[in-house]
């Protein structure tokens, strides 16, 4: 829990820096790239987390790797994280940053499950309809589940909208079983 609070504090500082430089989305992309590199490349993680490598050397490595690819304030932010020994939190900071940017830009994420993969036109239509219904920009994440038979299930935050045929069949079965049981009780 403590790490989540610390990561959010760093993310808030990065959002403030990004806003001052008018690059909130770009900083998010860069933060995702850095966090992704740390997550998938063991050598990068080893360098950043090694107690044998000085903080100054780690900061120089970051500067050399990102110079010309990232704005100076972003590099200084990463160097500040390293200076305080929090480089192990970079993936969590990235995640917290994305959540803050979504709030800042009025975006929500929606998990959309369909029976079959959707094409681009249908995906755009579903996303547009969700955006109108929610009143915020919706970033849809689609996946297919053949067990649905048909229809769609949408999850936005902790709300679930189940319009699947599977759910309708379950409700019909429940009603039929309980109607039969109610008839026996009389």
Reading side by side through the largest sheet, how are the strands ordered? Answer: 2-1-3-4
DSSP helix fraction = 55-70%
What's the tally of helices? Answer: 8
Compute the number of structural domains.
2
By CATH, the superfamily of the largest domain comes out as: N-terminal domain of the delta subunit of the F1F0-ATP synthase
Percentage of β-strand residues: 5-15%
Global shape: elongated
Rg over CA atoms: 23 Å
Strand tally is 4
Average predicted confidence as pLDDT: 90
Topology-level CATH name of the largest domain: Peroxidase, domain 1
Class by SSE composition: alpha+beta
CATH architecture of the largest domain: Orthogonal Bundle
Distance between the termini: 55 Å
Question: How many strands, what sense, and barrel or not for the largest sheet?
Answer: 4 strands, mixed
Q: Please provide the ordered H/E string of secondary-structure elements.
A: HHHHHHEHEEEH
